[in-house]
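dumping these here so i dont lose them again. two proteins, back to back, each one seq then structure tokens. dont judge the mess
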Amino acid sequence: MSTPSSPPPGASPQPRPGIPMPGSHLPGAQAHHVPADPNRIRSQVDELLAELGERPTPGPAENTETGADITRRARILEQAHEVLVDALATVDKI
């Protein structure tokens, strides 16, 4: 016997209003409608890591060029991290 609030047989249950879904706290999480494609994610991360290039040769810490390189590398790693976080948020919603 079904009640008026029961979903029809075979219907997938919908989340209850007010219950947060995994990853819903992330900025732009509502835009994730397409499941994560592992090959696309891997290629994006590989492209970003390729931008890192070779590690710079160790030198004096006060070298301005070294500081700029560290900042550039940190930004690239942050972008790669965002790609992975976005992919994980998509996977959490499946």
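---- next one ----
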Amino acid sequence: MSGRTPTRARPERTCVGCRERAVKNELLRIVTIEGACVPDPRGTLPGRGAYVHPAPVCLDQAVRRRAFPRALRVPGPLDVKALRHYVEQAQGCDSNP
């Protein structure tokens, strides 16, 4: 035995809303396209990304703290309508049995 744990290491990221660390696949990647925050659930869009829990609470905290422009390193406010719509749709799917 080498003393290593048998589980694989999984990458972690920090949610820009609640500032808690979580496994990367539990968070939603956000990128900016033409002044708007766009969800990137597959993680394949180009550019700098920020991560947030796909929950309205974390999204509201990130918007209130102006975390998206800071994390994505863009000047000025960003439009979060598409992101908010995506999170609300994801929450609607999760709440159905």
